[in-house]
Amino acid sequence: MDLYASPMACSLAAHITALEAGIPVTMRYLDLVSKRTDDGGDYRAISPNGYVPALRLPDGTLLDEAPAVLQWLADQNPASGLAPPWSSMDRYRLISALNFLSTEVHKKVFAPLVGAHATDESRAATRGLVEPTLDRISARLGERDTLVGETFTVADAYLVTVLHWAVHARAQLANWPNLAAYLARHLQRPAVAQAIAEEKAEYRRRNVPAAQPA
Ligand SMILES: N[C@@H](CCC(=O)N[C@@H](CS)C(=O)NCC(=O)O)C(=O)O
């Protein structure tokens, strides 16, 4: 299975999830601006939306949109607990958390701030949204160890990714002690540590400019 990704972008959450679930995926990194894959191919011919993550499933289907990719991976290994069972209330809490992170946090705040197409203008327009957004995430998490239920789920894989961007955008996470403690705790998970180590190495190897992790 191929996972189309960019180092330290939102596809990191899918990378973490695949490792957590024990699902072998081949990481296919690409340049988010030129849309070129490493073999020089046109990524838009693979995934017309042109963004990551996208997963090439064993039957050839191409699945994109982070909430769908994350839940598909989680559902391949239900025993992993990465997504609560369908029709449980926690499943709907998970979908709520994923949509919140994807729309209200990722696309609205961090894409214009640290994304591949960020500009001075977009950064200036969104910098002021970081603190109120971290306030909202902090309130949503409370003093719990995980965003949904009692164990690590794909929502946590996504939130770890988002908090990395926040640190990259120079937010002082110490001002949100529950978020700082949450990130430090989850960085100890072997799958999280492995995915981040691999992607940081890939990020450095490609010499991606500092303002392009998302
Ligand atoms: N709606 C998509 C958005 C994904 C997205 O914005 N991915 C970023 C990386 S974090 C990207 O590929 N940006 C490049 C682009 O949009 O051209 C999802 O939730 O998966």
Beta-strand content: 5-15%
Number of helices: 9
Sheet with the most strands, sense and barrel status: 4 strands, mixed
CATH architecture of the largest domain: Up-down Bundle
Bound heterogens, unique: glutathione
Order of helices and strands: EHEHEEHHHHHHH
Low-pLDDT segments, ≥5 res: none
Structural class: alpha+beta
Q: End-to-end distance, in Å?
A: 23 Å
Average of pLDDT: 96
What sort of overall outline do the alpha carbons produce when their principal axes are compared? globular
Rg measurement, Å: 16 Å
Number of structural units classed as domains: 2
Question: How would you describe what is shown here?
Answer:
Strand 1, helix 1 and strand 2 form a beta-alpha-beta unit. The chain has nine helices and four strands; from the N terminus they run βαβαββααααααα. It folds into two domains: 2-79, Glutaredoxin (3-Layer(aba) Sandwich); 89-191, Glutathione S-transferase Yfyf (Class Pi), Chain A, domain 2 (Up-down Bundle), CATH 1.20.1050. The longest helix is centred in the middle third of the chain and has 26 residues, at 89-114. The two termini are 23 Å apart. It has a four-stranded mixed β-sheet. The protein is globular. By secondary structure, it is α+β, with helices and mostly antiparallel strands. Helix 1 packs parallel to helix 3 (66-75). It has helices at residues 11-21, 43-46, 66-75, 89-114, 120-126, 130-141, 154-168, 177-186, 190-206, and strands at residues 2-5, 26-29, 54-56, 62-64. Bound molecules: glutathione. Glutathione binds at residues 6, 9-10, 32, 50-52, 65-66, 102, 111, 115-116, 214. Glutathione is lined by residues 6, 9-10, 32, 50-52, 65-66, 102, 111, 115-116, 214.
